[in-house]
Task: inverse folding
């Protein structure tokens, strides 16, 4: 054994600083006042100090703060008893329990170390000290001492203490700027003042919370996941973790948030445009694969609404990354005419097990066992489609189609615009009551029931939207009799299953400008290491 | 003190927000003497000028127990509750 122990400077009870002396034997023991085993060891340590103190520097390092004085008085200790109430030295020396003994030679190398009170260890130590120092053995009635007594856990291993110490350590993975908020400031108010918030309260991203969050991913905290528009800020894993803490995420949600940030920051998704458009688009996240169950996402009753921490905070964390790392503040680059609640959060999981169809991620080329996040740029929703009486599959499919008429404006058709249809279980049961009803058939049915002559799209006194009168005139009556469906192609209709078993209410999200002109939906596999 | 980590891309320094200035002088002005010598002389003169040039404005006087310590919380609250503006006299 020859490892050098980290340097420390700690004060004794009189306030005098002590460190390990060079060129001298040292016996260091970590203790806690409320540890029975430390109280057993204390008289032995005092006897060591009396016997060998001239040659050996005996130092006790106490974790008990103000109670250290009680410990010293109880055992009439005459050696320096040092105050390590922050437990920084215990952390750096990497002990596990107290008492923890280090027998150190003149070069600073550890000769031996042990924890707890195993009488044989202590006796062997006494013999070794006497032999090396050629001093008479300490007078200790070994037979009166217990043969074996386990130590107590070192205080620094208490999770709340340990995380703080880890965050403050020199090798901490934290690189973000630390902001000290004065005790007289309310940290919640401070974060509002700094513009970190979406308008709701935030969880303070303390270093220890961020460290715990980083434990949710195997990724290096300094890996750059994306550059986030509009400011092209670098979203490192650490920055995403900070925003995830503020959003209220658990560490196990972090891989989902990372994948979502990666997805929205692609050229295809175009988060800059999604953020900036006066139409008020927002990312809608659909989660597929085993992670849904692992992190307890809601895909059933109320899946599109409030009440589930994973759904709520994952969506919010993505928004906060765009706001804080990307710099997209409301009234700045964020310029929606109305905005919508999806700008706070919109994230849910597909109820794959309830669906007879291939899950969204499987449709998009992933394995069923992959965990995947898919993001859609949506301007409205969830908008309810109500049909309780229909009992025939084509009837309910027809109603779902009619429910999509409202995308942009009922009058507008042949739209190259996405819609995300969330089919509820009862509607699904009606669709499939006579046998399989593939998604392709549902898409075709939606197109079929929404098909109208182009003449209905011409601007008129009711609405100036649609085909301008002059264009209509040029087209002529024959061309205007041509019929077009709601969507420019069935591929614009995305279908998932979610919701409770009770209720004949499906929902739809209305898209933004789909395609290279605006945004394409993007799927990313979630990296679970 | 609480330490938090910066969630932004760190291009903008952390700054305190200054309350929006209305450009109008109405209501009550507090004059806070931090208890440094001759602070009262300056505040007396300010009070005289305010009464002369803005007679409709109320003036209230306050004093910190000592300039060497932060203003006690009850006094901060008293000033916040009673005043629209505050002028603090720092100098010797």
Result:
């Amino acid at each position: 054994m020859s490892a050098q122990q980290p340097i420390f400077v700690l004060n004794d009870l009189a306030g005098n600083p002590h460190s390990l002396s060079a060129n001298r034997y040292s016996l260091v023991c970590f203790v806690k006042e409320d540890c029975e085993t430390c109280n057993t060891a204390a008289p032995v340590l005092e006897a060591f100090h009396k016997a060998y103190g001239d040659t050996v520097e005996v130092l006790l390092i106490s974790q008990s703060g103000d109670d250290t004085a009680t410990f010293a008085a109880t055992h009439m200790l005459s050696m320096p008893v040092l105050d390590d109430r922050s437990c920084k030295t215990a952390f750096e020396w990497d002990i596990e329990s107290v008492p923890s003994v280090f027998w150190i030679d003149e070069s600073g190398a550890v000769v031996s170390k042990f924890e707890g009170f195993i009488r044989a260890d202590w006796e062997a130590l006494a013999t070794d000290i006497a032999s090396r120092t050629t001093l008479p053995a300490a007078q200790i009635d070994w037979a009166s001492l217990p043969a074996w007594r386990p130590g107590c856990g070192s205080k620094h291993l208490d999770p709340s203490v340990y995380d703080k110490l880890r965050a403050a350590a020199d090798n901490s993975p934290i690189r973000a700027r630390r902001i000290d908020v004065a005790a007289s400031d309310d940290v919640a108010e401070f974060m509002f003042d700094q513009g970190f918030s979406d308008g709701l309260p935030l969880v303070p991203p303390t270093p220890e919370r961020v460290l715990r969050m980083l434990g949710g991913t195997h990724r290096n905290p300094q890996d750059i996941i994306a550059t986030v528009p509009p400011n092209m800020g670098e979203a490192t894993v650490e920055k995403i973790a900070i925003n995830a803490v503020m959003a209220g995420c658990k560490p196990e949600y972090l891989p989902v948030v990372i994948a979502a940030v990666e997805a929205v920051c692609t050229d295809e998704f175009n988060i800059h445009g999604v953020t900036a458009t006066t139409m008020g688009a927002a990312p809608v996240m659909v989660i597929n694969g085993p992670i849904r169950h692992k992190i307890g996402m809601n895909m059933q009753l109320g899946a599109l609404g409030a009440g589930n921490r994973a759904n709520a905070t994952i969506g919010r964390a993505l928004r906060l990354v765009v706001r804080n790392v990307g710099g997209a503040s409301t009234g700045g680059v964020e310029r929606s005419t109305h905005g919508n609640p999806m700008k706070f959060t919109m994230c849910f999981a597909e109820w794959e097990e309830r669906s007879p169809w291939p899950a969204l991620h499987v449709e998009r080329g992933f394995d069923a066992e992959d965990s995947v996040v898919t993001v859609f740029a949506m301007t409205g929703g969830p908008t309810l489609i109500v049909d309780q009486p229909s009992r025939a599959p084509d009837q309910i499919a027809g109603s779902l189609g009619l429910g999509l008429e409202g995308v942009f404006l009922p009058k507008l058709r042949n739209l190259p615009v996405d819609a995300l249809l969330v089919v509820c279980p009862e509607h699904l049961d009606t669709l499939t009551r006579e046998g399989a009803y593939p998604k392709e058939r549902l898409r075709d049915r939606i197109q079929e029931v929404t098909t109208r002559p182009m003449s209905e799209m011409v601007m008129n006194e009711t609405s100036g939207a649609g085909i301008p009168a002059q264009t209509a005139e040029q087209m002529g009556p024959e061309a205007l009799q041509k019929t077009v469906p709601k969507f420019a192609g069935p591929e614009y209709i995305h279908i998932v299953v979610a919701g409770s078993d009770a209720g004949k209410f499906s929902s739809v999200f209305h898209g933004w400008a789909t395609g290279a002109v605006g945004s394409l939906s993007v799927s990313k596999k979630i990296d679970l290491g | 003190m609480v330490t938090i980590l910066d969630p932004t891309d760190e291009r903008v320094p952390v700054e305190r927000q200054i309350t929006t200035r209305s450009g109008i002088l109405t209501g009550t002005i507090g004059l806070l003497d931090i208890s440094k010598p001759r602070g009262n002389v300056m505040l007396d003169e300010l009070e005289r000028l305010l009464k002369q040039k803005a007679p409709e404005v109320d003036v209230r006087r306050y004093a910190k127990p000592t300039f060497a310590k932060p203003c006690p919380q009850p006094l901060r609250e008293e000033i916040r509750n009673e005043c629209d503006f505050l002028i603090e006299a720092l100098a010797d």
Chain A touches chain B at residues 174, 176-184, 187, 191, 193-194, 196, 204-207, 210, 228, 231, 233-234, 238-239, 242-243, 246, 320, 324-327 (CB under 8 Å).
